Amino acid sequence: MAEVGSASSAVVSVAPRSSILTIEGLRVTFGGVVAVDELSFEIADGTAVGLIGPNGAGKSTALKAIGGEVKPTSGAIVFDGVDTTGRPTHTRARHGLIRTFQLGGEFARLTVMENLLVAVPGMRGRSIWGALAGRRWWGADQASEVRRARAVLSRLDLLDKEDSYASELSGGQRKLVEIGRALMARPKMLLLDEPMAGVNRSLARHIEDALNNLRHEGLTLLLVEHELGSVERLCDRVIVMAQGRQIADGDMGQLRSRREVLDAYLGG
Ligand SMILES: Nc1ncnc2c1ncn2[C@@H]1O[C@H](COP(=O)(O)OP(=O)(O)OP(=O)(O)O)[C@@H](O)[C@H]1O
Ligand SMILES: [Mg+2]
After folding, report:
1. Pocket flag, ligand 1, residue 189 (CB < 6 Å)
2. Which of 155, 186, 217 is the last residue of a domain?
3. Residue range 132-141: average pLDDT?
4. For residue 239, what is the DSSP state?
5. Which of 20-29, 96-105, 149-158, 204-213 has the lowest mean pLDDT?
6. 84 and 46 belong to one structural domain
């Protein structure tokens, strides 16, 4: 990367990428189990960061703590200049920190379009469910969200599924809808837990491409994923966890040659 923000760059000055997320001494315990142990890192705005490690390393718990579903035992989480530690998920979402969620049972009965619309903050109330009961009776204020949802579906290559019920989709298509729902909340940063798990190879590649496009448009990504090829292609930087702790941080090429990483994870 070019030197940015240095004193010598008097003519063209490129601002260094500021941190959008700062984790400081994050610790999460469940009874006697220390799931996340003194995790500290920063994520620069507009970058894609992978979080990898063996089963039970604490990756999902860390992501949930960052997203606000799990309360940290100690430590601080600052997102976009706001201390969100202990704040509920919706507070973070309002600031643009969004975690993707597996489509629950209730969403199977909705169409893809409906799934995206109910994910818009402020459209969760009676009005949207009323509108959904009438299916096609979108109100004027919903029309712009419908247009936005179509744009999201188009970029995910799902436009032809707009009227399909979520229950009719393949596993990979459902994952794309989960990403689409997150995008409807206008995120600055997406938290994704194994977005390609259990998906066939071509759809996994499709999901990867979609995430790559979003990243190139400036969305910040924090991605937990076991498929290391995707992590390597997608992520600027990778953090390795084992037994709740961060054991390495670097690009995938560097990490592959680190002894402690090989021992914990990559060697098998
Ligand atoms: N709700 C919970 N209650 C009790 N223990 C939990 C809970 N959630 C996670 N744990 C424990 O915390 C540790 C970390 O789990 P976590 O799910 O974060 O790991 P992970 O890195 O996401 O693993 P995987 O790769 O298998 O998804 C594990 O020992 C797990 O059993
Ligand atoms: Mg997990």
Report:
1. no
2. 186
3. 56
4. E
5. 96-105
6. yes
Q: Is residue 5 part of a domain?
A: no
Is the per-residue pLDDT at 268 higher than 80? no
Query: 49 CA distance to ligand 1 centroid (A)?
Result: 20
Say how many domains are in the chain.
2
Q: Which class for 252: exposed (0-12), middle (13-18), buried (19 or more C-beta within 10 A)?
A: buried
Whole-number pLDDT of residue 16: 62
**Going by CA atoms, what residue is nearest to atom 30 of ligand 1?**
56
**Prediction pTM value:** 0.88
Give the residue among 128, 102, 100 at the shortest CA–CA distance from 184: 100
Å from CA of 121 to ligand 2 middle: 26
- Write the single-letter amino acid at 185: A
Say if residue 109's pLDDT is above 70.
yes
Centre of ligand 2 to C-alpha 258, Å, is 23
57 and 260 Cβ atoms separated by less than 8 Å: no
Q: Are 108 and 153 in the same domain?
A: yes
The atom of ligand 1 lying closest to the CA of 28 is 12
